[in-house]
Amino acid sequence: MSAQRPLAEYFEQAASWDADRSAQANRSERIAWRVALAACICVVILSAALLALIPLKRVEPYVIRVDSRTGLVDVLPAYDGREDFNQAIARYFLMRYISVCERFDYAMARADYRQCGAFNSAPLNQALYTRWDPSNPRSPLNVHRDGGTVSVRIESVSFLGAALGGGHLAQVRFERIVRQPGGARERLEHWIATIQYVFGTPARAPQMRRWNPLAFEVTALELEPEVLGSTNRSGG
Fold it and tell me: Is residue 160 within 8 Å of residue 169, measured between CB atoms?
C-alpha cells in the first residue's frame, strides 16, 4: 500500500505536467494566431495605403534641347492634347506678334507695321512710331535701306502666370536672322521677349478685326538679347 502511494503521486504530477504543457501549447497557439491576424491587418492597411498613393506617382518624360551653335539648353514643353484653350490661343497670338513685329522686309514693311500696331496698346504704338520714324537713324527703314532683311524663328513660348498690374505674362524665345544683300553673310541673334498681355474688346475697324479678331493686346514688352545670342555664318 505504501509502495503504491509514491506511484500515484508520480502519475498525478505527470498528469499535471502534461496539462501544463497542453495549456502552454494552447496559449502559444492563441498568441501565434493573434500575431498572424495582426500581421494580416497590417498588410491590408499597407496595401490600401499603396493603392491610395498610386495616382500620385507619375512619370513625365521631357525633352531637353541643346542649341548646336550657342550651347543654350532649354526644356521643350510637352503637348498632351489637353492644353487649356485660352492658353493655346494666347500661344498663337504671341508667336504671331513676335513674328510680325520683329521681322523686316521692305516689300511687307507697311503691312507689318500696321498689323503690329493692331496688337499694341497705345503707349507701345507710340514707341513703335518712334522706332519706325524715318528721322530715327536706327529705324529699320534706315538700317536696312540697302535691301537687307530680317526673318524670325520662334524657339519657345513659356507662360509665367498673372502679371502684377493685371493681365498675363509670357516669355518668347526667338531667333532673328539678319541677311545682307547679295547673300554673302547672315547674322543670327537670339532674343528673349517678356510680354504682358490681355484680351480686350475687338476693334470696330474691319481691317483690325481681320488681323486681331479676339482683341489680343500687348500692354508691356521687354526685349533683351540672350547670352551668346549673336553669331555669323556664311550664306548659301
Answer: yes
